[in-house]
Amino acid sequence: MLAELSLFLGSMDIPIEYVPNLTMGIAFISVILTTFFLHLLLRSIFLPVIKKVILQTEFVWDDALIESGLLNRLFQLIPIVILYVVLPVAFIHLKFIDYLLLFLETLMVLWGALVVNSFLTAVLIFSKSLRLYKTVALRSYIQVLRLIVFFISSIVIISMIIGKSPTVLLSGLGALSAVLLLVFKDTIMGFVASMQLTFNKLVETGDWIEVPEYGADGNVVDVSLTTIKVQNWDKTITTIPTYSLVSGSFKNWRGMEESGGRRIKRSVYIDMTSVKFITETIKERLTKLSILSDWMANRLDEIDAYNQGHGIVSDTHLNGRHLTNLGVFRAYLELYLHHHPAIRDDMTFLVRHLEPTEKGVPVEFYVFSKTQDWAAFEAIQADIMDHILAILPQFGLRIYQSPTGYDFKFLAYSKS
């Protein structure tokens, strides 16, 4: 073809000394233009058709090839490879062919690294549809692989430019190892920490964690090589160094979510001056409570039997056993929680007195709800506390509350 082009140019009254160079120039430009049009053909026709076919399939993994840009990178690499193959054959006598081939080799190595990077991105995108993405910090490992790929490609490119073997450059990096360790300190520490977090299953994407040191309290949205992103409940984002979770401490609420229950631990402070033996009026009122009626009857029979068995017959409460309003309230609270539809009976269930303080006698209930949803959980707690505060006066009990301005105003008014 070059000979025919040379004869054609010679027949056009072009000086014979210009014909060879002009022939090579026209042929070279023709090859470049042909490759460019091939690139346009692949990008404008073949690539859209392939994307359309992929999007119509039911598979998920092939969609990741499009989203990651892997197909675009591959189609961009094809013309470079064609030029690298054709130019040495067609233009072997071209003076700058060696420099051109070196440029194409460098371009192929760089584009090859970009293709591998896109492939790793496709793997990461596909993994999001799997459970593996939550349990394994794939992003960390993929970032390490990316660093390795670009590091190797940089060494290869530099070795091609200076005409030395890559092993020569690698052997010279020994003296720079201290500098490299200093530069990549956070990367190395993050990689080791991410491996520990993954293998020990300490943190997964979607976990609710608390890290007070960094003001983080929310769901983990991303685990990368050097940082962990936490979306707080106020929708702000907190970034935490990955290695800080290994070197420090944090709270992970995953165990609560997997248990099927969420702990409710609340205390009600009872004014100690309101604690007393129940009177007949209170006894009559409490026996009308459907939840408490059977318990009251059984308890009163037990106490009467005990007192009669020990010959205790007295109207005073100083002798024998008697019910107190606080004890009856504690029994009522336990029965009320057992009958509550949102409380689990198969997990820790406790209603108890704590040590009296200057604020009164704390009555604590320690139970688990059936739901872990935050809004529903808070509604359950509020419902229980509302009921307790409303029914306490029926037992002759008072809640402890520090005096307020209204109390002082009422006291001053009563004195006047």
Structural overview:
The chain has 416 residues and is α+β, with helices and mostly antiparallel strands. It folds into three domains: 2-129, no CATH class; 167-259, SH3 type barrels (Roll), CATH 2.30.30.60; 262-414, no CATH class. It contains 17 helices and eight strands. It has a five-stranded antiparallel sheet with strand order 4-3-2-1-5. Strands 6-8-7 form a three-stranded antiparallel sheet. A hairpin with a 3-residue loop joins strand 2 and strand 3. Helix 5 runs antiparallel to helix 7 (138-162). The longest helix is centred in the N-terminal third of the chain and has 38 residues, at 19-56. The chain is elongated and about 125 Å long.
Please tag this protein with its features.
SH3 type barrels; single chain; 416 residues; alpha+beta; 17 helices; 5-stranded antiparallel β-sheet
Q: State the total count of DSSP E strands.
A: 8
The gyration radius over C-alpha positions equals: 40 Å
Question: Can you tell me the overall shape?
Answer: elongated
Mean pLDDT, as a whole number?
79
Number of domains: 3
Q: What structural class do helix, strand and pairing data support?
A: alpha+beta
**How would a crystallographer describe the biggest sheet?**
5 strands, antiparallel
Helical residue percent?
Answer: 55-70%
Total of helices? 17
Low-confidence stretches: none
Helices and strands, in N-to-C order?
HHHHHHHHHHEEEEHEHEHHHEEHH
Q: How would you write the strand order of the largest sheet?
A: 4-3-2-1-5
Content of β-strand:
5-15%
Distance N to C terminus? 121 Å
